[in-house]
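A.,

Following up on our hallway conversation. Structure tokens first:
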């Protein structure tokens, strides 16, 4: 399914093909918390990187965080922002170049309602953030084994 998104100032618009559309995974790591703002977490979707189409490419800004635990090593997770308004648009990782992760907050297309959430990197969660996790939700202090594609297969049958 084709997903469309944009930044707040509309300088950047994008579309991408996705089969990982459920906004189920909340990442509470310090980088997602700081870069996405909001409630202290970010939700990445999963899409086919080769299908990405961008309008306003000159406004894109890449951010690769420094990993404190690895000294001065740059994260291979590339976060893409609009340099004009600061919206976090999508992310990608050099280990999985075929994948692109639209931030759910940047998506304009209607997204499906999630039956249960997965809360990840809770070991880095800010103390003021409440997860509101239910009994159906999964919670991890670090990253889960289950990929976004595996979650969709297990929970939605897609
Ligand atoms: Zn913008």
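Then the amino acids I'd put at each of the 158 positions:
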């Amino acid at each position: 399914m084709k997903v469309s998104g944009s930044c707040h100032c509309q300088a950047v618009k994008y579309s991408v093909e996705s089969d990982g559309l459920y906004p189920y995974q909340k990442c509470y790591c310090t980088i997602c918390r700081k870069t996405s703002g909001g409630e202290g977490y970010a939700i990445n979707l999963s899409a086919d990187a080769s299908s990405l189409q961008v309008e306003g490419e000159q406004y894109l800004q890449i951010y690769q965080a420094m990993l404190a635990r690895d000294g001065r090593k740059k994260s291979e997770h590339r976060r893409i922002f609009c340099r004009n308004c600061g919206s976090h648009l999508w992310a990608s990782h050099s280990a999985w170049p075929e994948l692109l992760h639209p931030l759910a907050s940047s998506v304009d297309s209607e997204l499906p309602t999630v039956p249960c959430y997965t809360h990840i990197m809770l070991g880095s969660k800010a103390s003021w953030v409440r997860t509101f996790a239910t009994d159906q939700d999964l919670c991890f202090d670090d990253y889960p084994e289950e990929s976004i594609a595996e979650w969709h297969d297990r929970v939605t049958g897609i």
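Residues 7-9, 11-12, 82, 84-85, 87 surround zinc ion (CB under 6 Å). Curious whether your intuition agrees with the design.

B.
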